[in-house]
Design a protein that fits this description.
D-Maltodextrin-Binding Protein, domain 2, 2 domains, signal
C-alpha cells in the first residue's frame, strides 16, 4: 500500500513538473509543409518532436500546409514563427542552404551526411543565419529522380521536345529543362504529381518518398519508368524567426535533427524499395560522366547568375573530392 502511495505521489510530482514546464514555455506557431496534410509523414515527424521543444521552453502550435508557397508566404509575413520547407523553396530565406539541392552537387548519402555534419557544428552557425532568418535544422529526403510515362525515353537526347512538370519558381529547374531542349510546363509541389499522373506532362522529377503518397505509380503505369540517375539530393529545412525563440534554440534543433538522420534514411530506403525493379531504368555507363559534366556546367552558370551560392558549391565540391579525389574537378577547382 505504501508503495502504491509512493507511485501515486511520484506521478503527481511528474505531472506538476510537466505542467510547470508548459506554463513557463512560450507559445509559437510552426507551419509545416506536407503535401498529404495533417496525416502526412512530415507533419507526424514534427509532431513527435513537440515534447523535446517543450523541454527547451517552446510550446509549438502545429499547422499543416499542403501548398508550400502559402506556407512560405505566411512565414515571411510573420504569421508563422517557424516553417518546414523544401530546400529549393528555402533558398529565398538562406541562399547557402538553399543551394544544397543544386543539380548533381551531392552524389549520394555519404556526401550528404558529411555536409550535414559540417553544418551542424556550432562554428557553422553564421552560414545558417540570414538577417533574422535562421535555418534550425536540415533533414535529408533522398535523391531526386526523373519519372517518365514512356520508358523508351531513356537518354537525355530523347527528352527534347518532351513536356516536363517544372517548378516554375525555381530558376535552376527552368534552366535545366530548357538546357536539354524539353518543354517547361509550370508546376508546383502541390500539383506536379497530378499533371504527371493524368498525362498532362511526359515527365516529372521527385524523390522516391513522393512515389507512394503522391501515387506517381499511376503515371509510371505499365509503360513508364524511373530513371536511376541522381539529379540532386532533396532536403527539408526548418527555418525560424531567430528573435522569436530562446537564445541557442536553433543549435539545439540542429543537434536534435542530426539524431534523426538514420531514421530519415530508413524511410528513403523503404520508399525506393516500393518502386518495382522492372520500373527502374538504368543509364548506360558511358552516358553517366556526360550527365555529370552537363550538370556541373549548369551549376557553374547558375552560380555566375547568382542563383546558387558560391561558398555552398565550393563546400560540396570539396566533399565530392574527399570521396572521389581522382575526379578532374578536384584539379581545376572551377566550383
Amino acid at each position: 500500500m505504501k508503495s502504491l502511495k509512493k507511485i501515486i505521489t511520484a506521478l503527481g510530482a511528474t505531472a506538476l513538473l510537466a505542467n510547470q514546464a508548459h506554463a513557463e514555455a512560450i507559445d509559437r506557431k510552426f507551419c509545416i509543409f506536407d503535401p498529404i496534410g495533417h496525416n502526412g509523414p512530415l507533419f507526424n515527424v514534427m509532431k513527435s518532436s513537440k515534447p523535446t521543444a517543450l523541454k527547451w521552453g517552446v510550446n509549438f502550435e502545429l499547422s499543416a500546409y499542403t501548398d508550400e508557397k502559402i506556407a512560405a508566404e505566411d512565414f515571411k509575413a510573420a504569421q508563422c514563427d517557424a516553417v518546414l520547407l523544401t530546400g529549393t523553396r528555402a533558398r529565398e530565406f538562406n541562399k547557402f542552404t538553399g543551394s544544397l539541392e543544386a543539380l548533381g552537387a551531392i552524389p549520394g548519402d555519404q556526401e550528404m551526411q558529411m555536409i550535414l555534419q559540417t553544418l551542424n557544428q556550432p562554428k557553422a552557425a553564421k552560414l545558417l543565419t540570414n538577417g533574422n532568418y535562421e535555418v534550425a535544422g536540415i533533414l535529408p529526403a533522398g535523391a531526386v529522380y526523373l519519372f517518365l510515362r514512356d520508358r523508351n525515353v531513356n537518354t537525355v537526347d530523347k527528352l527534347q521536345g518532351k513536356k516536363i512538370a517544372t517548378l516554375d519558381y525555381d530558376p535552376a529547374s527552368l534552366t535545366m529543362v530548357r538546357h536539354i531542349g524539353a518543354s517547361v510546363v509550370g508546376a508546383s509541389s502541390a500539383n506536379f504529381a497530378g499533371k504527371f499522373n493524368n498525362g498532362s506532362v511526359d515527365a516529372a522529377y521527385a524523390p522516391a518518398i513522393a512515389y507512394t503518397p503522391l501515387e506517381l505509380y499511376k503515371g509510371v503505369a505499365q509503360d513508364g519508368g524511373v530513371f536511376d540517375y541522381k539529379l540532386a539530393q532533396m532536403n527539408f529545412q526548418i527555418i525560424i524567426h531567430h528573435d522569436r525563440f530562446p537564445e541557442g534554440f536553433g543549435q539545439k534543433v540542429r543537434e536534435y535533427a542530426s539524431g534523426q538522420y538514420d531514421e530519415a534514411y530508413k524511410l528513403v530506403a523503404t520508399a525506393e524499395s516500393e518502386i518495382k525493379a522492372e520500373h527502374w531504368m538504368h543509364p548506360a555507363k558511358e552516358h553517366v560522366s556526360g550527365y555529370d559534366n552537363m550538370l556541373r556546367e549548369v551549376r557553374i552558370s547558375l552560380r555566375d547568375e547568382g542563383v546558387y551560392d558560391a561558398n555552398a558549391l565550393r563546400l560540396m565540391r570539396k566533399v565530392r573530392c574527399k570521396t572521389n579525389p581522382k575526379n578532374a574537378e578536384c584539379v581545376d577547382k572551377r566550383e
